[in-house]
Amino acid sequence: xxxxxxxDLYYDLNLQTLTPEPLCVGWRVVSRRDGRRPEPGWAEAExxxxxxxxLHLATQSGGTQLAGTWSLERSSFLSQPYLVMQLxxxxxQALITRMRRSHDxxxxxxxxxxxxxxxxxxxxP
Length: 125
Known about the structure:
By secondary structure, the chain is mainly beta. The chain has a single domain, classed as Beta Barrel (Lipocalin). Helix content is about 5%, strand content about 55%. Strands 2-3-4-5-6-7-8-9 form an eight-stranded antiparallel barrel. Strand 5 and strand 6 form a beta hairpin. The protein is globular. The model is unreliable at about 1-5 (pLDDT under 50).
């Protein structure tokens, strides 16, 4: 029983010390709360791949893939991390509001909050 419970435990990462490395994986969108205005490309995204400085989005239909670049930045006031993502249609910024990982680091949860009000929860794998 204890083994089953421990598999579901996630630990919050300290966002002030977050580096790009734990973000460089394939992510799956598990929930989405729409914002005040559309966030092009992100409102339909189902899969997100972050690698080195490359960004790939796969949309719900599976037929559309968007590619671009990304970087991890920090607010000067609180050192809160946020992603700056450049796609063909423009630049988006998303605050990292929470990142969690399993005890062995194999599973991760990530919550992004965009300037438009869109909130996306991602999981890996």
